[in-house]
Amino acid sequence: MILRSIEDIKGTDREVFAKNKNWVSRRFLLKNDGMGFSFHETIIFAGTQTHIWYKHHLEAVYCVEGKGEVETIADGKIYKIIPGTMYALNNHDEHYLRAQEDMRLLCVFNPAVTGKEVHLEDGSYPATD
Ligand code: 9YT
Q1: What's the pLDDT tens digit per position in 7-47?
Q2: pTM exceeds 0.85, yes or no
Q3: Which residue, 5, 39, 66, 109, could crosslink 29 as a Cys pair with Cβ 3.0–4.6 Å?
Q4: Of 31, 36, 1, residue with least CA distance to 115
Q5: Ligand 1 mean position to 68 CA, how many Å?
Q6: Beta bridge pairs of residue 79
């Protein structure tokens, strides 16, 4: 059994700030926790736009606070994100994530993120295996 609070994570290497200061992500579960997925709380800061393209991962995201939107780049569709909304990048969708207000998002990744990835220029994380 694993029990972790957000306070355990803040200030450790499970807390990662984006280089461009667009977001901070706190990783409750990573690959080495052995769950087969990783589980994160990510704050996307108001007024930012982030280009994301997880070519090697599937991700589901649930918004619990704030307001923003996702634009899928292939078709230019815009999806409003408010508390209670979930989006799943089931097609490895390349997208822009924009926040109008600070957004608090709960994110699950399959396969699990190891915690050592850095966002690549193209918005992806490298493959783990
Ligand atoms: C919303 C979103 O894509 N979150 C991803 C998690 C974050 N980029 C992380 O933990 O690296």
Answers
A1: 999 999 999 998 889 999 999 999 999 999 999 999 999 99
A2: yes
A3: 39
A4: 31
A5: 15
A6: 70
